[in-house]
């Protein structure tokens, strides 16, 4: 290892910054965030540095560097970008026994500053030892993408309970176990989702119960898994999956998604296929309750969004009635996923002022919907579970005044490698689904906006752009 990693406590400590341009300003922002007492030396400075001096936040000497500037300093940063000045600052600092960093000149520095991910008070430093700064930036971007934005809030929240927990759980090993449960559980997730008031209340009751030696309760997260591509899982869904003890999942959840769950999590399939109910809703509710009452963290994983034709509402209502903590994690629903796959904007100025998500399948076959309301032009219909009734849905819409020439797109297995997109007109929707042997799951988009789709076959199949205008 070329550099020894360390975080410096600069709070109220003197730091000399030589340079007044943008690189110096970047260093200055971080130094001030860390509470350093900064003296800057430069004949010319950016507006930002000048303003900080006027506001009394730094001491500024508008002149060239002199070795006497080092007197009384604890650390030195050189950011002039001028080779001669940088070398002089480096030499003088080393002679004075001070640690020095010269921006982009590791050979003149006794320490280097890492690329950072800042979720204050959580700070992650990344260094490639100067070998590949661009790689360090890429690593930082990857870490930025996976860490929740409120991670810092979570650390601060935990800090406020540190001494209370230490008093209640004096044994170190048990205390670590307590915090593990905390960081994996619904309280931490509430903080991360911005609901700190609820988190604080639950934490207080958890700490009090723990004081009374009660067993911690389990929880259920109802999580939308999106349309199938694991890259379309939300970060929060991933976090929930990675902390789950049990994952209860549906038919539309593929192995690529399940792979993202904690390796030792129990996986329970409760998939329902049309006419072949693997588990009834009552059985699923009972299963969720049973595992939560055993103190487990349960993830109820559903395709798309749990609250869009997903029966998520029934499960939430049941669990809350039984006093189980429930967290809700939305997912990308099939309509938006299919629209993105086909490049179809579901609403578009002048073409669609409304979009309705509707099921093509009712309890008795045909759904009980207001066809007249869906039949008006410039209104997009996103039809879920519509394959078996596609012809009848088209008849109802046309019977209520929708033009038979309205373009339609049938997107099957949206976002998955075997995705297929068929384009046609409303008048021929039934035969299109039948003749082209479209397989589910499929989402049918009906409306003028389909003409805007970015599907290669679209232009060949139909002169839609003209029809839509
Ligand atoms: C029971 S609903 C569940 C919907 C889900 N909760 C959502 O928000 O997407 C099942 C229907 O969703 C649609 N669907 C789900 N995943 C899909 C996908 N990857 N591609 C196209 N349609 C999909 C199909 O219409 C399927 O019949």
Q: What can you tell me about this protein's structure?
A:
With 469 residues, this protein is of the alpha/beta class. It folds into four domains: 14-113, Rossmann fold (3-Layer(aba) Sandwich); 148-216, Orthogonal Bundle (Helicase, Ruva Protein, domain 3), CATH 1.10.8; 217-332, Tetrapyrrole methylase, N-terminal domain (Cobalt-precorrin-4 Transmethylase, domain 1); 335-468, Methyltransferase, Cobalt-precorrin-4 Transmethylase, Domain 2 (2-Layer Sandwich). It is 38% helix and 19% strand. The strands form five sheets. Strands 3-2-1-4-5 form a five-stranded parallel beta sheet, with helices on both faces. The protein has a five-stranded parallel beta sheet with strand order 10-9-13-8-14, with helices on both faces. Helix 8 runs antiparallel to helix 9. The protein is globular, with a radius of gyration of 30 Å. The termini are far apart. The model is unreliable at 457-469 (pLDDT under 50). The protein binds S-adenosylmethionine. S-adenosylmethionine binds next to helix 14, strand 17 and strand 19.
| Estimated helix fraction | 25-40%
Strand content: 15-25%
Q: Say what the CATH topology of the largest domain is.
A: Methyltransferase, Cobalt-precorrin-4 Transmethylase, Domain 2
Q: Which CATH first-tier class of the largest domain would you pick?
A: Alpha Beta
- Distinct small molecules: S-adenosylmethionine
Strand count: 19
Strand order of the largest sheet: 3-2-1-4-5
Summarize the model shown:
With 469 residues, this protein is an alpha/beta fold. Helix content is 38%, strand content 19%. The chain is built from 19 helices and 19 strands.
């Amino acid at each position: 290892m070329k550099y020894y990693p360390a975080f410096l406590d600069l709070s109220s400590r003197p730091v000399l910054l030589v340079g007044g341009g943008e690189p110096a300003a970047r260093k200055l922002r971080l130094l001030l965030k860390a509470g350093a007492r900064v003296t800057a030396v430069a004949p010319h400075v950016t507006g930002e540095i000048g303003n900080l001096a006027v506001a009394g936040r730094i001491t500024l000497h508008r002149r060239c560097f002199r070795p006497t500037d080092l007197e009384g300093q604890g650390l030195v940063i050189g950011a002039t970008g001028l080779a001669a000045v940088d070398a002089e600052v480096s030499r003088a600092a080393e002679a004075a026994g001070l640690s020095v960093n010269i921006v982009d000149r590791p050979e003149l520095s006794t320490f280097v500053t890492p690329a950072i991910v800042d979720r204050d008070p959580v700070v992650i430093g990344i260094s490639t030892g100067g070998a590949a700064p661009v790689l360090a930036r890429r690593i930082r971007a990857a870490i930025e993408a996976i860490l929740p934005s409120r991670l810092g809030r979570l650390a601060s929240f935990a800090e406020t309970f540190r001494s209370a927990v230490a008093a209640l759980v004096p044994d170190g090993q048990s205390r670590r176990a307590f915090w593990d449960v905390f960081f994996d559980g619904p309280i931490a997730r509430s903080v991360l989702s911005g609901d700190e008031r609820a988190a604080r209340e639950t934490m207080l009751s958890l700490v009090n119960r723990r004081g009374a030696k009660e067993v911690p309760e389990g929880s259920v997260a109802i999580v939308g898994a999106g349309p199938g591509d694991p890259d379309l899982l939300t970060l929060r869904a991933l976090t929930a999956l990675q902390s789950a003890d049990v994952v209860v999942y549906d038919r539309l959840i593929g192995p690529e998604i399940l792979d993202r769950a904690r390796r030792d999590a129990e996986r329970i399939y409760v998939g329902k296929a049309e006419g072949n109910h693997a588990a009834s809703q009552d059985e699923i509710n009972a299963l969720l309750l049973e595992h939560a009452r055993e103190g487990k963290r349960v993830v109820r994983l559903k395709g798309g969004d749990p609250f869009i034709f997903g029966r998520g509402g029934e499960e939430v209502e049941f669990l809350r009635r039984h006093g189980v903590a429930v967290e809700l994690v939305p997912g990308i629903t099939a309509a938006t996923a299919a629209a993105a796959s086909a490049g179809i904007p579901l609403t578009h100025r002048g073409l669609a002022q409304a979009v309705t998500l509707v099921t093509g399948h009712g309890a008795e076959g045909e759904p009980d919907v207001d066809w007249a309301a869906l039949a008006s032009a410039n209104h997009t219909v996103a039809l879920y579970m519509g394959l078996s009734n596609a012809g009848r849905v088209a008849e109802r819409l046309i019977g209520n005044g929708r033009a038979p020439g309205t373009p339609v797109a049938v997107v099957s297995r949206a976002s998955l490698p075997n995705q297929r997109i068929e384009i046609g007109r409303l008048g021929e929707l039934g035969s299109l689904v039948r003749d082209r042997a479209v397989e589910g799951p499929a989402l049918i988009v009906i409306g003028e906006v389909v003409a805007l789709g970015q599907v290669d076959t679209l232009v060949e199949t139909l002169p839609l752009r003209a029809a839509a205008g």
